[in-house]
Amino acid sequence: MAPLRYRSLLELARSRPQQWTCNTCATTLKRPQWGAIQQRRAMQTMQQSRQHAAANMESVRRGFDSKNSNTLLYAMSLIIGTLAVSYGSVPLYKTICQQTGWGGQPIKSAAHAYPDSEQDIAARLTPVTTSRRLRITFAGSTSDILPWKFSPQQREVRILPGETALAFYTATNKSLDEDIIGVATYSVTPAQVAPYFSKIQCFCFEEQRLNKGETVDMPVFFYIDPEFLQDPNMKGIDTITLNYTFFKAKYDKNGHLAPIPMPH
Amino acid sequence: MSTFGSPGGAQRFSKPTPPERGSFPLDHDAECQAVMKQYLRCIRAHKGVNDDECRTLSQGYLQCRMERNLMAPDSMKNLGFQDLEKARLAKMSKTDGEVEEKKG
C-alpha cells in the first residue's frame, strides 16, 4: 500500500466529518470478511474505499451503541453500589454483631442487668474463691487549673471476682485563699473490663468541696462482677487500673454544677 | 465519636456508669481516719491481697461511716460481707459451744 498523504485530524474532521475514518477502521474494513464485493472495491482508489469504509464505519458504530450504553449502566451501578455498601457497612456491621453476638459482643451485659432481689445482690457479691486474684492498681490525676494534690493511698489491691474491696484516695486543697469544688470522673483500663467493674460507692460525679488547706480521704468501694470469669475476652486480663481525674467545677447561671474546661 | 468506624464488637461503653449507691459524703472531720489507717496498714502488710483480716477492717470502716451519718446504712450482706458474717457467726457459735463444754 502506498503511504497515506499526511492530513491533520482536525482538517479531516472539519472537512468531511461524516466520512472520516481512522486508519485502522479503513484497513480492517477492507478485509475479505466483507465479501467478494469488497475485494473488487479494494482495487479502487483510496478515497473511494475510504468513503465506503466511512459508510460502514457508521454502521459499525451504530452496532456498538447499545453495547456501550449497557456497559455504562453496569459500570455506574457497580460504582454506586460500592459507595452505598461502604457507607452502610458501619451500622450494618454493628447490627449484625449485636444480633449474632460475634466477636464477644454481649447481648445482655452484666453491668446493665439491675438485680431485682436481695438474693441476686448477695449472689453477685460472693467471692469466687476458685479464681485467680486480680490486681487492681490505682492512679489519680487532676486538671491543670485545679490546685489540689490528689493521690491514691495504696499502690494495689489483689481481689477475687465478687469480692468487695475498699480503696482510698487523699486529696489536699493546696490553695490557701479559697474553697474549691472539684468533680471527679473515672475510667478503667483495659477498656473492656469497664462493664464488669462495679462501684458500690465512690466519690465521683458529684461535687466535692474542699475548704482551703484541707485534706480529706476519699474512699472507693467496688468489686469485680463474677461474670468476668465467664467472658472469654477477659481471659488474659490480670491487672486492672482505676484512673480518677479531678476537674475544677463551678455553679453556672442555672445553678448546675459544670466543670471548668482545661485551658489550651 | 472515637468509636466511629470501629467494628461493633468493641465493648467500650463510652458512658461511665455512676456508682450503685451514689457518692460518699466527704469525711471533713476525719472521724473514721483511725480505722482507715489500720486498714491501709493491713493491706500493706499483706502486700495488697485482700485477706479476711483486711476485709473485716474495711467492714469496720464502713460501719464507722454509717454510725457517723457519712454513709447510708445498709446491711452487710448487700455490701458483700455475707461470707465474713457467716464465718464470724460460725466462730462465735463454736466458741460458745466450747465455753458451754467448759462450764458443763
Structural class by helix and strand composition of chain A: alpha+beta
Distance between the termini of chain B: 74 Å
Care to count the β-strands of chain A?
10
Compute the number of helices of chain A. 5
What is the N-to-C order of secondary-structure elements of chain A (H for helix, E for strand)?
A: HHHHHEEEEEEEEEE
Mean pLDDT of chain B: 76
Radius of gyration of chain A: 40 Å
Enumerate the spans of chain B where pLDDT stays under 50 for 5 or more consecutive residues.
none
Task: Please summarize the sheet with the most strands of chain A.
Answer: 6 strands, mixed
Overall structural class of chain B, as computed from helix and strand content, comes to mainly alpha
Number of strands of chain B: 0
Spell out the helices and strands of chain B N to C: HHH
Question: Which parts of chain A are unreliable, with pLDDT below 50 for 5 consecutive residues or more?
Answer: 108-113
Percentage of residues in DSSP E strands of chain B:
under 5%
CATH architecture of the domain at 98-259 in chain A: Sandwich
* Gyration radius of chain B, rounded: 20 Å
Overall outline of chain A: elongated
Main location (chain B): cytoplasm
Function (chain B): Required for the assembly of mitochondrial cytochrome c oxidase.
Subcellular location (chain B): Cytoplasm
Protein name (chain B): Cytochrome c oxidase assembly protein cox19
